């Protein structure tokens, strides 16, 4: 399993052309991510297999040879082709090896804490605080693990929550966006629910849920 990152000027159909190129080389694309900036730069990240890890440099050389063909047809000016590295199959170490959060080879969810913008605190608990913020211009909820008295149990519970949430995809479950598992910023990022918490709805706003509304939520 390898991860390939290509940075260049953004052009129409760029992702499609890069995808075709990797397929022609013989790679199986497991996952693809495309990012564009307001100043017309593009960052394309591919997770691929069907290439022996020991031949990584050969793959890099082939990409350097083949990508100029796309440049010729689309007038692209490449800025960087990151060294192709073998995807980590062990996992992400969390807090001095106290626990590992296993990484699915095709699951990209680690978030750079510097990309998070905190707006206001909306709740707190025994081991962490919840904030409203933004990530890549999207409103998000940021659950931050409080670090005054960290211990193995808290870290284990944090890791277990990440493991479960990143595997759950359902319309009735808050969407998991990512997590920061590198100290000192340990947090879980989910979609922000602007309607407030279920507790506030039931207790403070004196709301009620009938059988008709509960049935779809349980499916």
TrEMBL record:
It catalyses: L-seryl-[protein] + ATP = O-phospho-L-seryl-[protein] + ADP + H(+); L-threonyl-[protein] + ATP = O-phospho-L-threonyl-[protein] + ADP + H(+). Its EC number is 2.7.11.1. The keyword Nucleus does not apply. One of its GO terms (molecular function) is ATP binding. Residues 3-79 form the ACT domain. It is an enzyme of class 2 (transferase). It comes from the Eukaryota. Pfam families: PK_Tyr_Ser-Thr. Residues 116-219 form the Protein kinase domain. Belongs to the protein kinase superfamily. TKL Ser/Thr protein kinase family. RAF subfamily. This is non-specific serine/threonine protein kinase. It comes from Salix purpurea.
């Amino acid at each position: 399993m390898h991860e390939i990152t290509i940075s260049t000027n953004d052009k129409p159909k760029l992702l499609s052309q890069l995808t075709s190129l990797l397929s022609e080389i013989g790679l199986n694309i497991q996952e693809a991510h495309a990012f564009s900036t307001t100043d017309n730069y593009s960052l394309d990240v591919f997770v691929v297999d069907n290439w022996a890890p020991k031949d990584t440099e050969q793959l890099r050389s082939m990409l350097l040879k083949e990508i100029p063909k796309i440049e010729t047809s689309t007038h692209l000016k490449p800025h960087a082709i990151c060294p192709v590295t073998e995807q980590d199959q062990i996992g992400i170490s969390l807090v001095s090896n106290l626990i590992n959060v296993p990484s699915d080879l095709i699951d990209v969810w680690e978030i750079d804490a510097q990309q998070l913008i905190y707006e206001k605190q909306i709740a707190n608990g025994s081991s962490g605080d919840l904030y409203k913020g933004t990530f890549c211009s999207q409103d998000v909820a940021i659950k931050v693990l409080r670090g005054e008295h960290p211990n193995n149990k808290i870290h284990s519970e944090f890791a277990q929550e990440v493991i479960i949430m990143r595997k759950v995809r359902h319309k009735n479950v808050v969407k998991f966006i990512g997590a920061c598992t590198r100290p000192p910023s340990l947090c879980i990022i989910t979609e922000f629910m602007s309607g407030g918490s279920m507790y506030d709805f039931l207790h403070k706003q004196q709301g009620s849920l009938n059988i008709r509304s509960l049935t779809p939520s349980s499916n």
